[in-house]
Amino acid sequence: MKLWQKVFFSAMALLLIAINVTAGVLIGGSYRLLLEQEWERAVSEHQYFTASVKNQILAQRLRQGEILLKTEEVSALLPSVLQNPGGHIQGMAVYFGDKQLQSTNADALSGELVDAVKEAKDSSCRTLIQDVNGVSYLMVGSTVKLEGIDYHFFTLSDISATFQALNRQLFFAQVAGILFALLIGSVLMLIVIRLFKPFHQVVDGLQTLADGDYTLRLPETGGEEFKLLSRNINTMAASVEENIGRVKALADNRKQFIDNLAHEMKTPLTSILGFADLLRVQKNVEEKKRQEYAGIILEETRRLQSLSGKLMELITTGNTELEMERVFVPDLFQEIIQTAGPILERSGMTLISKPADKTVLIDRALFKSLLYNLIDNGMKASSKGDKVCLFYRDTEEEFSVGVADQGIGMSKETIEKAAEPFYMADKSRTRKAGGAGLGLALCAEIARRHGASLNIQSELHKGSIVSVVWKKGESSDESQS
Q1: What is the predicted pLDDT for the residue at 330?
Q2: What one-character-per-residue DSSP string does 129-189 give?
Q3: Sequence spans of domains, the chain
Q4: Does domain 322-471 have CATH number 1.20.140.10?
Q5: What's the pTM value of the predicted model, to 2 decimals?
Q6: Are the C-beta atoms of 11 and 188 separated by less than 8 Å?
Q7: pLDDT surpassing 80 at residue 405
Q8: What distance in Å separates the CA atoms of residue 336 and residue 325, rounded to the nearest whole number?
């Protein structure tokens, strides 16, 4: 059974119960009121009847001028006195002891009531309702003293009309309940269908999302709950769509990475294989040629070595646990200059540093690799006589460590793609310098692992500034004096 059907039938069941309970309470109250009125009327008529009998006995005694009438005289007088009980009384009977003195339409009189009145110690009225041959009787009995002697009077009233009225009310309540239930059920059905329309839209939308169409957006209609549900589903769909796009882009990037890797390795391997084969095939190779071939093989081998080393470092950087330590910036720069300075000097360039009396929380070996890569990139972009600067900067909002050069610079398009693996703005120049386009990609990954970001500022023919930037207050790697 569907949810809207469960809600509809549950509401209908509660509605029917409420109608029946309400009708039962109202009819029950009406029945008790009518019955109480019939009881009061029957008791009043019974008392009036017995009082009338007493008055007639008294009048007879006064006419005869006697103090008390004899029992025989009272018994003889009763038939004439009881001929017309009046009111709604339809039957009556009088007992003297166990003997019935007078009876009119009293066949339905209950022996149980007769015994109860005889056993009573007072003159209060006793009542009993009983059905006899399809007729409902309200019987009233009491003990009455006539001339000092106890007589038992009984009256019977037909109250079938009261029960018939009650039955008519019950029938009307049942018919009205059914009609109202049908009417309200129809209205309730329309309301439930209308209320659950947004729910069906949500279910259909979820099925569409389950089928893989994450572009779907649900209309935010219905009550506040359905609007909130639709809004959350739309947010989820947008997030899933974004994640799928990100995963797809990552897959495309990895494919491009592999394609570029295959291409980059193909060129040096072809050169190594070709020149090695020449040395193998040619028996007599001039010394000059041999040195040239051997030099090409050596350079391409070094290029492969550099490529494989940077690839391995790039791959393992994200999986290696960093050994963080506080490092004094001047000491760090001094280590870099001692290693990289002579290399720049052989190319006719100068490596200078601008440290500060600060400390940074870094993995020393990994961060030194980052700086070596930045210096290497700056050297490849520069010419003889240029300077490459290793610097530390500190502002109110951030601090950074980086490298600035006076080289060829980069365009805006190049800056946006510079950190992508294997991207090279000038491939011929980069390959000639032994690069493979992995340096800045590796630097960006190392910066990320240190809770920082790689920032590139450059302008064509005016040099570049590449720095690792930490935001103050967002990282535990803030510099300290």
Answers
A1: 94
A2: EEEETTEEEEEEEEEEEETTEEEEEEEEEE-HHHHHHHHHHHHHHHHHHHHHHHHHHHHHH
A3: 3-167, 214-317, 322-471
A4: no
A5: 0.41
A6: yes
A7: yes
A8: 17
Mean pLDDT of 426-453: 64
**Looking at domain 214-317, does it have CATH number 1.10.287.130?**
yes
Question: What's the first-to-final CA gap in the chain, in angstroms?
Answer: 72
Rounded CA-CA distance 451/455 in Å is: 13
d(CA 332, CA 355): 9
Tokens coding 98: 């166990």
**Mean pLDDT estimate for the chain:** 79
Give 352's strand partners: 389
pLDDT tens figures, 244-295: 888 887 777 666 556 555 655 665 677 678 778 878 887 777 888 888 878 8
Strands (E), 32-146: 89-96, 99-104, 126-132, 135-146
For residue 376, what are its two tokens?
């290497």
* pLDDT exceeds cutoff 60 at 327: yes
Q: How far apart are CA 469 and CA 326, in angstroms?
A: 17
- Right CATH for 3-167 from 3.40.350.10, 3.40.1840.10, 3.20.20.70, 3.40.50.300: 3.40.1840.10
pLDDT digits (tens, 9 = 90+) for 172-190: 877 887 888 788 888 888 8
Residues 6+ apart with CB under 8 A from 313: 369, 442
pLDDT band at 435 (very low <50, low <70, confident <90, very high): very low
